[in-house]
Amino acid sequence: MGKSGIIFDVDGTLWDSSYEVARSWDQIFKKHEDVKRGCSRDDIMSVMGKPMNVIAEIFFKDIPKERREAYLKECEDNELGYLREHQPKAFDGVKNMFERLSQKYPLFIVSNCQSGYIELFMEICGLEEYVTDIECFGNNKKAKGDNIRLIAKRNGLDKYYYVGDIYTDYTATVEAGGIFVYAAYGFGEVNEDVLRADSVEELTKMFESGDM
Predict the structure, then answer these.
(1) Which of 35, 104, 113, 162 sits between 20 and 30 A of 44, alpha carbons compared?
(2) Residue 118 in contact with residue 111, Cβ under 8 Å?
(3) For 99-146, what is each residue's pLDDT tens digit?
(4) What are phi and psi of 8, to 5 degrees?
């Protein structure tokens, strides 16, 4: 019998930090006269799930690449400090889900975020002891599908589920050879024939049932 594991997305699947992220990025936008825009929650929601370099291209498209990368780094650093101070909460039931599912499966996190974001999320939500391994775009500049596959290979997984809430999570999972589980309570729409959970508790029970 092969080894199975569950890999989770973060934003829209385990918590919603969009308000705090928008405020932190807006602080940086206002520092620079050549950034001719603000940053709202709607702006952040529109780019959730995209790699950080793509987000920089969207928000700073009229700014030279070198300065764009510097501004992105400022936004990333300010974001982590702001989140540490203001601390968004995990969705109801997330910690309980990790406690319960970690008794049956190794648990992992893969996101397109910057380095340090997953670690801070786990610290704020008290999840470090339940998570076996993590990976993100900020660490290795790899796409989400590549990082899902990397986590599976690194941890000897023969069967792996990826729990996400947007369509690109689905396509990344398919590309990585995993099984997608749609967190339908999250931010996006996935209109494919996939496993679906309408709440964190439903997601927990789905994996606990052993019928996956």
Answers:
(1) 162
(2) yes
(3) 999 999 999 999 999 999 999 999 999 999 999 999 999 999 999 999
(4) -110, 140
Secondary structure class of 191 (helix, strand, coil): coil
Segment 159-187, tens digit of pLDDT: 999 999 999 999 999 999 999 999 999 99
pTM: 0.95
Site of tokens 């339908």: 184
Neighbours of 46 (CB within 10 A): 11
Q: Are 196 and 180 spatial neighbours (Cβ–Cβ below 8 Å)?
A: no
183 vs 196: CA distance, rounded Å = 6
Q: Provide the residue type at 207 as one letter.
A: F
Q: For residue 2, is it left (φ>0), alpha (ψ between -120 and 50) or beta?
A: beta
Query: Would you give the DSSP letter of residue 128?
Result: G
Locus of tokens 């024939």: 193
The residue type found at 122 is M
Q: Which two tokens stand for residue 172?
A: 């990344």
What DSSP line would sit under 49-111, residue for residue?
TS-HHHHHHHHTTTS-HHHHHHHHHHHHHHHHHHHHHH---BPTTHHHHHHHHTTTS-EEEEE
Query: Residue 151 contacts by C-beta under 8 Å, 6 or more apart in sequence?
Result: 5, 7, 108, 110, 133, 134, 135, 157, 160
Please report where in the chains the tokens 């775009």 appear, as a residue. Answer: 137
